[in-house]
Amino acid sequence: MRVLIAINHPKTDLGTVGMALQEAGAELDIVRCNEGGVLPEDHSAHDALVIYGGAQNALADDTHPYLPHLTGLARAFGEADKAVLGICLGSQIVARAHGGRNIIGNPLEFGWQPIRATAEGHADPVMSALNGATHLFEWHNDTFELPPGAVHLAENDHTRHQAFRIGRAVYACQFHFEAHTGAVADWKADYEEMISRENPGWLDTYAEQASTLGTEADRVGLEIARAWVALIHPAA
């Protein structure tokens, strides 16, 4: 099993997705797009694609010229019935790849927030891990409209389109289910000033939330990751 990992931000932790891929014995090709890493021309050498988050928006082709090619890869993997996973910015790129409208500059959604499975999500092999509702980490302004043919899998009161699936195994998740408590602790340390400015009071409740909501998110996030990895079909 060979998986292409597209990194869009220097502080990316592979998180629960990396853990699940390691458990499955996957070979990872990590391309740090934000640092000038070169993406492959096509999907032929890989069984799956994971696109992680970043601070740029999904339409920032002028400042991040690799975005059109990454968007094309996201579509090509899906059309070849290969598993795709987009997280946060990655979900917005997957939406763009399949004709969904990107919505730039919504009010910030941050921290461990409640996420509800839709009726379709309850029946989904991956998002059923939400078990109705749970708290998972969010850090975004931008979002998207569902692409044509997408199955709406998760939502909350702030952002209606939290997750969708296209076809068998193309998944887009606005929330950071991959962000276990260790990753969130690192983000807190690296961006404490920004968090304090944009989310007054959150740092004061961080420890309590990490021990309760964060523990729940760790468990559910790994379940989601394992369920998605199980959909990867390695080449014969």
TrEMBL record:
<keyword id="KW-0315">Glutamine amidotransferase</keyword>
<feature type="domain" description="Glutamine amidotransferase">
    <location>
        <begin position="20"/>
        <end position="182"/>
    </location>
</feature>
<dbReference type="InterPro" id="IPR044992">
    <property type="entry name" value="ChyE-like"/>
</dbReference>
<dbReference type="GO" id="GO:0005829">
    <property type="term" value="C:cytosol"/>
</dbReference>
<dbReference type="Pfam" id="PF00117">
    <property type="entry name" value="GATase"/>
</dbReference>
<keyword id="KW-0808">Transferase</keyword>
<dbReference type="InterPro" id="IPR017926">
    <property type="entry name" value="GATASE"/>
</dbReference>
<dbReference type="InterPro" id="IPR029062">
    <property type="entry name" value="Class_I_gatase-like"/>
</dbReference>
<dbReference type="GO" id="GO:0016740">
    <property type="term" value="F:transferase activity"/>
</dbReference>
<protein>
    <submittedName>
        <fullName>Glutamine amidotransferase</fullName>
    </submittedName>
</protein>
